[in-house]
Design goal:
The complex is a heterodimer of chains A (505) and B (453). By secondary structure, chain A is of the alpha/beta class. Chain A has a domain at 174-449. In chain A, 30% of the residues lie in helices and 27% in strands. In chain A, strands 3-5-8-10-13-16-18-20 form an eight-stranded parallel beta sheet, covered by helices on one side. Chain A has a six-stranded parallel β-barrel with strand order 9-11-14-17-15-12. In chain A, helix 4 (73-87) runs antiparallel to helix 10 (203-211), helix 8 (178-184) packs across helix 9 and helix 11 packs across helix 12. Mean pLDDT of chain A is 78; it is low at 1-50, 113-117, 148-162 and 234-241. With 453 residues, chain B is of the alpha/beta class. Chain B is 26% helix and 38% strand. Chain B has helices at 6-23, 26-29, 32-42, 58-61, 77-81, 106-111, 126-132, 142-150, 384-392, 397-408, 410-413, 419-433, 439-452, and strands at residues 67-68, 92-98, 101-104, 116-120, 155-159, 168-175, 181-191, 196-205, 212-222, 227-235, 240-250, 255-264, 267-276, 282-291, 296-305, 311-320, 325-334, 341-351, 357-366, 371-380. In chain B, the strands form two sheets. In chain B, strands 1, 4, 5, 7, 9, 11, 13, 15, 17 and 19 form a ten-stranded mixed beta sheet that branches. Chain B has a ten-stranded mixed beta sheet with strand order 3-2-6-8-10-12-14-16-18-20. In chain B, a hairpin with a 2-residue loop joins strand 2 and strand 3. Chain B is globular and about 70 Å long. The relative contact order of chain B is 0.10. The chains are: A alpha/beta (505), B alpha/beta (453). Chain A binds chain B through residues 94, 404, 417, 419-449, and chain B through 51, 54, 336-337, 339, 349, 351-354, 356-381.
Chain lengths: 505, 453
Amino acid sequence: MDKENEKNNNNKGSLLESDGRSPERVGDSRVIDDVTTGDYKYGFVTDVDTEVIPVGLDEDVVRLISRKKNEPEWLLDFRLKAYRHWLTMTPPKWGHLKMPDIDFQAISYYAAPVKKDGPKSLDEVDPEVLKTFDRLGIPLQEQKMLSGMAVDAVMDSVSVKTTHKEALAEKGIIFCSISEAVKDYPDLVRKYLGTVVSYKDNFYAALNSAVFSDGSFVYIPKGVRCPMELSTYFRINAAGTGQFERTLIVADDDSYVSYLEGCTAPMRDENQLHAAIVEIVVEERAEVKYSTVQNWYAGDAEGRGGVYNLVTKRGLCRGDYSKLSWTQVETGSAITWKYPSCVLAGRGSSGEFYSVAVTRNHQQADTGTKMIHLAPDTRSTIVSKGISAGYSENSYRGLVKVTPAAEGARNHTQCDSLLLGSNCGAHTFPYVDVMNPTAVVEHEATTSKISEEQLFYCNQRGIPTEQAVGLIVNGYAKEVMNKLPMEFAVEAQRLLQITLEGSVG
Amino acid sequence: MTMSSLKQYTDLFRQERVALDGNAPAALNAGRDRAMVFLTAAGSLPVKSDEGYEKTSIDEMFAPDYGVNVNRVNFPVNVAESFRCDVPNITTLLAVVVNDRFVPTTTLMKNLPEGVTVCSLRDADSALLGRWLGKTVESEDAALAFNSLLLQDGVFIHVAKGVKIPKAIQIVDIFSGQTPLLAPRRVLLVAEDGAEISVLKCDHTQTPGVEFASSEVIEIFAGEGAKVDWYDLEESSPATSRWCQFRCRQEAGSSLNICAATLTNGKTRNEYLIDVVGDHCETRLSGMAIGSGTQHIDNSSRLTHRSDRSNSDQLFKYVLDDNATGAFEGLIEVSRGARFNEAYQSNRNLLASTGARMHTKPQLLIYNDDVKCSHGATTGQLDSAALFYMRSRGIPLAEARKMLMQAFMVDVIEKIRLDSLRDRLRHLLELRFSGSCGDAACATCRNRADRQV
C-alpha cells in the first residue's frame, strides 16, 4: 500500500472515530478504496462518511449516493446503468426555450439532510414572498419552513401526518419515502421502478435515475379506495427530497387514489435544477388522479435566477379499463419542461390531462402531454389553458399517437391560449400520429387576448380592470380548476389571481 | 455503409462548376457559392431527426444515383408540345418545362398581352433577377440552397404595374428520359403593384418506369394590391420524388391564393413559406392530397404575419388508402408588433385502410396579444351513419364511399377561382377515386390534347 492510500485510510479512521459509527463500515470503505484508487487524479476523495461531497458527477459519486442510502446491489446497478447511458446522451434542444447550458459538473449530487443554508430569520426572506404567504393565509411556522429555515418546533402537519399514517396502514396502503420503501418493500419497488420511465427515456430521466435523492412511494392494494387525498405536503418537513425527486405510485386492481403534489405557497429553493421523475402504474379497473400545483421560485422581474423545472412524468395504464388523470396548475419556475403522459396499454383504458400554465415576467414554459394509444377502445382527453403575460413564452407541446392495434381509439384535444400584453408569446405545437383508420382524433386550438367586451361589461358594473381580469381568467381556467380536489382548487384559484396582479397593461 | 446523399451532388458541383456556370446567367451563378457554404455547414440534406422533417427524409429521397443534365442534352420538343394537362374549356397560355429545361410554345409567345413577360430565367431581365431571385423571403434553408446549387434554367414571369391577365398561364412540368434524373426547377413570378395573374402548374412523368427527382423552388412576389392565384397539380408517377418549396412575399393590400392538389405521386414534400409583410393582405393556402399504394405526401407551411390587419386561412385535406402516408405540418406565426391579424388553419384527414398513416402537427407561434388565431386538426374515417343512410337507399358501399370522399374534398375545390379548372378537378377526383388516374390519366391527357390541337 502506498503512502497516499495509507493517509486516506488514516483520515477515514479518525472520521469514523469522531462519528462513532459502527466498525463494519470500514470493510466497505476498503473495497471502495480499492476500486477507486485510480481516480485520485480527478480529485475524488473516498471519505465516505464526510458530509461534504465535492461537486461533480462520476461513477464514484453514484456509488457513494447509493451507499450513503444503504441501497441494495440491484438499485446500485440500476443507477450505474443509468449513469453510463446518461454519458452517451445530450440535453434535448427541441423545446421552445432559451436555456443556458447547464454545467452538470458544477452541481453537488448529494446533500446530507442536516445541511441547511437557509435564511436565519424571516427578515432575510424576500418581502414579496412574505406578502404572498400572508395573502394565501399560510401560518407563520409554515412560512418559516417554506422559506427554507430550519424549524424545530413540532408542526401541525407533522401530527396530521401521524394520524393519517395510522388510517392508511389499516387499509394496507403504503405511503412512505422511496428510500424507506427500498428498505421495507424491496420486491415491490424492484418490480415497478423504471418500468414506466426507462432510464434511457431522455437526458434528464437518465440523470435522475443515476442520482435520484428521494421521493414518495405509494402502493394501493387490490380493491382499496384510498380514504383521503395523499399529499406530499404532509411529508414536506421530512424534506431532503432534493432536486432529483422520484415518485412511484402503484394502484393495484380496482383501487383508487388521488395524489397531490406541491403546494400553492411559493417555495424557496437553492437548487436551480430540478429533474424529477414520476412513475405511475395503474392496474385493472384502477384509477389514479394526480394533481400538481407548481409554484417554484420563478426568478425576479428581470428574469434573473429561478428554478429550471425539467420533469419526466408518465403513467402506464396497464390494466384493462384503468384510468389516469393528470391535473396541473403551473405558475412558478423560470423554465418549465414537462409533459405528463399516459401510455394506454389496457383495453378500454383512458387518460386525461388538464392543465393551466401561467407565465409572466421572463418565465418560459414548454409543457403539454403525450397520449399513447396502444390498445383498442382507449380514450384520452386533453384540455390545456395557457396564459402568458409580461415578456414570457408559453408553449403547449403534445403528442397523440394511435398505434395500429388501437382499434376505435378516441381523442379530443382542446388548447386555448390567452395573451395579456403585447410582449409575450403563446405557442402551440401538437403532434398527431394516427395509424389506425377507426380512430377519431380531434385537435382544436385558439389564441386570443381577453375580450374587450367582457372587460367593458365588468368595468361598467364597477369592477376595476385588474379584478375583472382575475374574474375572466378564473372563468377561462375553470374547466381545469374543477378537476382539482376541493381545498386545492380554492387555493389554486387565489394563486392564479395573485400571480396575474400587475401583469395587465 | 451510410453516406449522406448530399455528397454526390456537391461532388458533381465541384466537378462541373464551369459547365454549370456556362449554362446559366450571372444571376443564377451568383447564388451557388452561398448555397455551397450553407450545405457544407449543414453536412447533409434534412433527415427525420431534424425538427420539421420528422416524417420525410430528404436525404433518402435524393439518395438514388440521379444524374443532372449538365450537358444540356436536348429532349425532343415535339413530344413535350403534345403533352398538356387535361383541362378542357380552359384556354391557357402554355409553357412547358422538360425536366429542367424551359420550352416556350409559339402560342404563348404570340398571345402574351402587353406588360407580361414569360420566358426562360436565362433570358430574363438581369436587374429584376438580381433584385428578386432567391430574395423573396429572407431565410436561408436547405430547399433553397440545394436548388440554387445546380440550377441551370427556370421560368420567369413578370407582370407590369396594373396589368391584369385575363387568361391563366399554364406551366407543364414533364419528366422524360431513360435514366434517373434530378431536375432543379425554379419559377420566379413578380407581380408588380396592382397586377393580377393566375398560374396553373402541373407536374407529370412521361416515362413512368424511370426514377426522377425534382428540386423545385417557386418564388412569388405580390406587389401592393396585386392579386396572384397559383394552382398546383401533381400527377406524377410512383417513381417520382418531389421537394418543392414556395417562397412568397406579400406587400400591402395584396391577395395570394395558393391551391395545391397531389393526385398521384411517389414521394412529395411541399413547403410553403409565406411572408405577409404589408398591411391588409389576404392569404388563402389550401391543399388536397389523395394517397394510395405507397404514396407519401408531406405538406409543411410557415405563414408569417409581420404587419397589421391581415387575414389568412389555411385548409389541408387528405384521403389516404392502402399504405399511403400523409404528413402535415402547418405553422402560423404572428410577429411581435403585428396587430389585429386573423389567422386560421384547418387540417382534416380520412384514413380509409389499416395501412394508411397520418401525422399532423398544426402549430401556432404567437408573439402579439391582439390576434385571433386558431387551428383545428382531425383524423378519422367516413361517417358510418352517412354510409348506412346511402346504402339503405340502394347505393352500393363502394359507390357510397366514393361519393363521401369526393364530398369531403369539395371545400378545397371551392378555393379555386378558375371555374373551368374547378370543374376539371372535380372530374379528376372522380377518376382518381375510381382508381383510374395516375398513368392512365396521363394517357387520356395526351389523347385529349391531340384532339384539341
